[in-house]
Please model this.
Amino acid sequence: MLTRFLRGSSLVFAGILAGKLVAMVSSIIMARSLSPHRFGIYLLGLSILQIAAIVSNLGIPGVLPSLIAKIDMSGSQDGPHRLVRGAIYSCLGPALFLSAAVYACADFVSVKIFHIPEISGMLKLTSAIIPPVVITSVLTAAFRGYGRTWPRVIFQDLLPGLLTLLFFLALIRFGFELSGAYIAFGMSSLLVFVLIARSIKKKLGMRFLVRIRELTAVIELLRLSWPLGIESLVWVVYTQIDKLLIGCFLPPSQVGIYAAAASLSVILSIIPQAFSYLALPAFSSVVSNGSKHELGLLYGKITKIIFQISFPVFLCLVMLSKEILTALYGDAYSNGSRAMAILAAGLMISCLLGPTSEILVSAGRTKAPLAASAAGCIANVSLNAVLIPRYGINGAAIANSCSVIVSLLVSGYFIHRYFNLLRWDRDYILCPVVCLGLAPLVLLTTRLFSSYPLLASAAITGSVYCLSVYALLYGMQWRKLAGVFSGR
Model:
């Protein structure tokens, strides 16, 4: 089971890595082209659209893969197709309603809340893309339920960022700057929707015309998904509230600087995302077989691998935060280096428990991730409201990391209560010891390559450090690592 899981995760990891790099390049080009002020305005409008899209999907993409995997194992031929069609039509109504609501409330939100009139026109321009974005998320989840990893790589990781970048580069040549960024996002979202709809129809023979009798499958779907729907809303508020409150308390330029720092710290999330993406179907299969022992082994090994790969990357981001941020985004964004290090610390903490949401959802405990996200969201909103006026974007980063700890504690409680799986061994101590022991290597390498351009020096230093850590760490554990990959 673990061997097959790791093979599938390698493709997802490559896709997520490529997608993050494309998104980062797109963010860098936009940030340099628009200035921190306009880049911040663009991100504020984008956050509002993302909240509306997440609310519209009702949590269905989170539970759909697990249900498809269970129906597919039962031997039903058209059952998964009926489920997907029901999911699409369940999300379509809320998506259309919120699209109209965003358009109608654009002036109020931009003027009364953020005091930035430029946001209004952008929201009206792009509100129509909410339904296609929502349906795209449902279709991506459908592919995941069938065990297809490549649609996630193409339609979620690569194409959106790549197309947005290409459209933006074309539009900016004709004088479209801030509006060009929004138009590029809208055009890329529509094109991705068309491509994934054609792909699922061709690869899986999916029909999109739903019959009335098939809507009965929606009842069970909504019964299971409503906690995840609330969790999705809580999660998007959780992840976007820092930028939104920065926009309320501080100038838009601070939103842009904070977003630049966050976009680089998110590199640390590539590793857990790659493993967690396939964890849900894998855990669901184990739960269906009734093997709690195998579930514990699989969860433990996945969590340990995530932690050991992530920790060296985390230390690199902390030690080289100012160099990386300045080299990529420019001097105007260098003040975000401390926020970047704090955000990276929060993401590293989240790696300690691995794919908690996936294991809970696979066992039908969909309310547990909701409770964890709600606790983190409440902490995040409260701390942001207190810390941003006093400490600016650093306060937002502190609030974000503290909320991760709160959410982690709640998730850990449920994991221990339902599965009793929280067991750490000496490997969780060995990895930080090795990483910290080799930390002086960063200072040495930085000095040796100080004459190089800043970006080249940071890249060489980070690569040398991470490769040295992995070589030493896994050289000490080669027998155990071989056992993991052989499935023992």
Summary: Residues 86 and 219 are 9 Å apart (CA to CA). The two ends are 10 Å apart (CA to CA).
